[in-house]
Amino acid sequence: MKETSPTEPEAPAATATGLHPTATGVHAEATGLHADRVSRRADGRLILDGVTFAPEPGSTVGLLGPNGSGKSTLLRLLAGLLAPSTGVVTLDGTALPALPRREVARRLAVVEQQADTQTELTVLDVLRLGRVPHRRAWTPASAHDERAVRAALERAGLTDRADQPWHTLSGGERQRVQIARALAQEPRELLLDEPTNHLDIHHQLDLLALVTALPVTTVVALHDLNLAAMYCDQVLVLHAGRVVAAGAPGDVLTERLIAEVYGVRAAVTREGPEERPHVRFLGTLA
Ligand SMILES: Nc1ncnc2c1ncn2[C@@H]1O[C@H](COP(=O)(O)OP(=O)(O)O)[C@@H](O)[C@H]1O
Ligand SMILES: [Mg+2]
């Protein structure tokens, strides 16, 4: 059982994460993404404070925490869209700034919270954008590019929307198109910021079942603790920019943690053969 108290600021971030047995240093042989003691300062305030995090390759990690706890900032640092103020993010042992942007884009797909695109594009056009990092300049799409696009379209349940203009889609459909664009990219690392936000429950479950079944490392910011408990191999809980707990959902999602991090009284029971935690909310704490 992990210590889940956010009231112990002395705990070094490296031991608080525990997501990867080698998460405390940068290794030449390291595979995948690795954030090593990253901090980010904005407006003189630390919005991310010494986070060490290395998702197990191929696993699905849920990024949890209240509004403003630093989830989006961490995802943007992992994607190389933001630079850490201190610390480093590496991909297979190489610091992100040392890698050509195009190479990063071939490996790593990111869907941000307010993902938008040019309005005149169709669904198919948006998915084809996902293939750009894989193509040499001025070369037409290959048969493989088209196969990847069609497969992503089908996986996201958008085949019958292929020619629909982006601006005519509903919020949930747009979200699915952005996710399909990320899948068309055929990444090894997939970073999703609250991807279930505008989706109905069927599409929420569909999406998480899909990403957990892919042989891809997925880091997904989620608000719904029960979805995280059902689908994530590991969860990382942020609170005021710090990692306060990390590990299997069953170890992390305790009544005590939920009270301390979210200020909410909850009852946690165990469900199903895997005894995944199920959270029932009882009210806010004063
Ligand atoms: N560019 C910025 N300038 C100032 N503050 C920022 C900036 N970006 C984010 N923040 C602040 O950092 C904190 C963490 O933000 P964010 O990573 O978006 O949290 P989350 O995704 O968990 O809701 C918030 O308090 C937010 O207001
Ligand atoms: Mg956010």
From TrEMBL:
Hydrolase among keywords: no
What SUPFAM superfamilies has UniProt attached to this entry? Answer: P-loop containing nucleoside triphosphate hydrolases
Which Pfam family, any one of them, does this sequence belong to? ABC_tran
Please give one Gene Ontology molecular function term for this protein. Answer: ATP binding
Q: What are the start and end residues of every segment in region (Disordered)?
A: 1-22
Q: Which InterPro entries match?
A: AAA+_ATPase (IPR003593), ABC_transporter-like_ATP-bd (IPR003439), ABC_transporter-like_CS (IPR017871), P-loop_NTPase (IPR027417)
Q: Where is the composition biased (Low complexity)?
A: 1-17
Decide whether keyword Kinase is in the record.
no
What keywords were assigned to this record? ATP-binding, Nucleotide-binding
Boundaries of every ABC transporter domain copy: 33-265
Protein's UniProt name? ABC transporter ATP-binding protein
Naturally occurring in which organism (per UniProt): Streptomyces plumbiresistens
Give the taxonomic lineage as stored in the record. Bacteria, Bacillati, Actinomycetota, Actinomycetes, Kitasatosporales
